[in-house]
Write a structure and sequence with these properties.
It is built from 21 helices and 2 strands. The protein has a two-stranded antiparallel ribbon. The protein has a domain of about 400 residues: Amino acid/polyamine transporter I (Up-down Bundle). Pfam families: Aa_trans.
Amino acid sequence: MRSSVSERSLIIESDDDDDHQPQSQPSAARRRRRRHEDGSGSESDSSSGSDLSSPCATPRIPPTASSYTQQWPQSYRQSIDILSSVQSPNLSFLGTPTLSRLSNSFITNSFRGKTPEIISNLVKPLLRPTTSDDRQHQQQEETQKSSQYLLPSRKPSLQQIPEDQKPLLVAHEVSTYQKCSYTQAVVNGINVLCGVGILSTPYAIKQGGWVGLVILCLFALLAWYTGVLLRRCLDSKEGLETYPDIGHAAFGTTGRIFISIILYVELYACCIEYLILESDNLSKLFPNAHLTIGNLTLNSHVFFAILTTIIVMPTTWLRDLSCLSYLSAGGVIASILGVICLFWAGAVDNVGFENKGTALNLPGIPIAIGLYGYCYSGHGVFPNIYSSLKNRNQFPSILFTCIGLSTILYAGAAVMGYKMFGEATKSQFTLNLPENLVVSKVAVWTTVANPITKYALTIIPLAMSLEELLPPNQQKYSNIIMVRSALVVSTLLIALSVPFFGLVMALVGSLLTMLVTYILPCACFLAILKRKATWHQVAACSFIIVVGVSCACVGTYSSLSRIIQNYT
């Protein structure tokens, strides 16, 4: 019985490899499983590809395609897929914090026989076994029922399935992992890019002047190029699917952890921005709202920040966030509607476009750099979109379309907002819209509704990564709720402590987005493909790194200085 359980765990572990290997190479998969089972790893398989070696692997054991997904964070692929509305294999959340990537890890072994049955009805084999496999199927179900934290997205090994049923399995794999069309991928990409950053583009022109639009266009061009570099990195080695995988291939485990932390901090900062945004806009709608408890009086900003937190917290406890994923896809519509409302207020409701503004405001350029940089903070999701495409050769065109359309929306909102409000432009153009106009209320309520649907999807990747670190006997429903609730409360405390929407956005854009979007893609590309890169690729990457580091230093210093000045 113990040997059969071990065999099943090894088969589950090799499924990722099977996803990327032709069916005509079953011997390679068997050899890999034998090496895992023997525990020696002394022999290398030439058919599995010696080019899969990573800096963190020993010279004698080249990593397989699944080795990149066996280290923290193992939940990144699935959690980011649902954040970006990418269709991901059978996904539910609470009760499955470590997801399907745990396979034969020490956490999985600790779960066996120790956890109660919660979602066993969801854990079912992909294909019905034949009569000759009934006993093996029964044993497999017993093991799966005792492993409630494993996601039911693993496919059975090809060797476990009769020959006549293998084509069905292959068809399911293709439809699961690679089924996004060109249009779906573009919508997903725009949904990621066109978030709350569009609200601050008029404020960015106020800070830097009209010349700042050149910075926006430059950042758009460089973001497209670095996105293509990420694609080159993903294609360089088998098994790379996410941004942390690229960091792993480039700089080993240290690179994987560093990039993961940067990505998660960026998501965490977005959640803080959501609460500040909700507080500011609801206070505009209800300026006299307040709450008095004894001798303590909460003004409208504090009250609405707390109220928003109370509303979004239960959404982070949901087992299945797919419903919120579909709602959050309306972010594209919300962004377009916001720009339309801004134009309507200026052209139809006679607010006018009379302000000329300044051509260049040099002291405000560092803040403008951070605000424009924040607009292109989608590179943490682009590898997932690429991995989900039906035709991956379309990715450069998809990326160009996403960034191009987003830039048009950004520039349109920036020009109209600044022409309408001039030097009175606030950090969110919705705060400048006249209160008596119906179109203003439409814009504000649209702005308020969108972050509520996105908050849980944004905080869940960080929460799931932290849940992976919990001891196996502590990964219970109640503990998971406590972790997620603590994260939500912490974002509230920071939002109340630093309630400066534009400056926080500039800080995130300067420090985190410069790393994720510009610096790290070039560094990873040079580390992985340094021998194949041409001289002009090396020159372009070096230029982007210098620009990214310079903008990060200047923008971060200016943002922090302005935040401190607002306190003093």
